[in-house]
Amino acid sequence: MSSATRSFTIRVPATSANIGPGFDVVGLSLSLWLTLSVTLSSGSSPIYVPPKITYTGEGADEVPLDAYKNLTTRVALYVLRCHDIPSFPSHLSIHCHNEIPFGRGLGSSGAAVIAGVLLANHVCNLNLPIERLLDFALMIERHPDNVTAALVGGFVGSYLRELDDDASAKASVPLSEVLPEYPADAGPEWGLDPPPPVPPHGIGHYVRFGWTDAVKAIAIIPRFELSTAKAREVLPQAYSRKDMVFNLQRLAVLTTALGQSPPDPELIYEAMKDRIHQPYRKSLIPGLPEVLALTPSSHPGLLGICLSGAGPTVLALATHNFERIAEDAKRIFKEANVDVDWKLLELGEGSKFEETA
Ligand SMILES: Nc1ncnc2c1ncn2[C@@H]1O[C@H](COP(=O)(O)OP(=O)(O)O)[C@@H](O)[C@H]1O
Ligand SMILES: N[C@@H](CCOP(=O)(O)O)C(=O)O
């Protein structure tokens, strides 16, 4: 019996969502990566061999290596099952190398979800267009900001289409039905009845904004995790008109201002302020108000400063003076007993697929 091997890599960037006023709307991709190196052998044995996962980098001590428990492979399995493919092909090996820290507001779960959607697409040659890949990702991450930026790259704005009643019901099934908890002894056929909820078409829509290369991102990353779910629980259900208008005005300006050359610190600093999520998340992140109080006049080169995603990472956009901005933010966090690491990052590309053999 002959055997053939196919190998490919999938690279998905970290993201920073919200950028101040764009809660659940804007995101940008950053130069930190989740990389999957995938090998698929076939034909040498008739016995089904389940997927083998190995993992290095961020999260290596906590991530499950069972394909029915790991977020990336569970997402891939969901996509396969929506295409009437009950399980992974035999003899699949996946090595994940992850540079994106967990639970810090840098889109680790969004990257894992996009990696899973792309894994299914390429392992079984589904040839799904970008829009359909996004539909699957949005059945899992219900806000579009991270997953869209992780998939297409750049500085991106997105919205969820208003769905008709039928599509809306399909798109709002509980996550437990999209990604069921597999029991320890689950075989490849487990969970096929009832079949998984197939996403409606065209859930998410996006546009890429301009971005000036002079703008770099300093990620100031506290050494503690804050789950996105917990950081969403503290948000109110309703907002005043005044606060909504405050954010809308700034968001409209910000999406163009970050593409202008040279970038205008006065315009951008004010445009990165927010009243929809940051004020409510302060209680979860000691030192946050003090760090957000750095300004372009106290720190030349700084353009604006905000919470990255749901936090606790702070994102400072700047053109120069990176070390001073970062070290001062680190010192301020330290005064609140929070240790941080910082990284100077670039606006990243979107997800990449490369056939290696
Ligand atoms: N590469 C990965 N592989 C498997 N699971 C992951 C991966 N990245 C993130 N996760 C899961 O997502 C969780 C973090 O998600 P979340 O709370 O949304 O924070 P973040 O802001 O990092 O996206 C992790 O605790 C882990 O369970
Ligand atoms: N808009 C979301 C973004 C969450 O991003 P993450 O990187 O923290 O997962 C929110 O603010 O809740």
Automatic annotation (TrEMBL):
It catalyses: L-homoserine + ATP = O-phospho-L-homoserine + ADP + H(+). Keywords: Amino-acid biosynthesis, ATP-binding, Kinase, Nucleotide-binding, Threonine biosynthesis, Transferase. GO terms for molecular function: ATP binding; homoserine kinase activity. GO terms for biological process: threonine biosynthetic process. Its EC number is 2.7.1.39. It is an enzyme of class 2 (transferase). The keyword Nucleotide-binding applies. Pathway: Amino-acid biosynthesis; L-threonine biosynthesis; L-threonine from L-aspartate: step 4/5. It comes from the Eukaryota. It holds the Pfam family GHMP_kinases_C. Residues 264-329 form the GHMP kinase C-terminal domain. Residues 70-154 form the GHMP kinase N-terminal domain. The keyword Magnesium does not apply. Belongs to the GHMP kinase family. Homoserine kinase subfamily. This is Homoserine kinase.
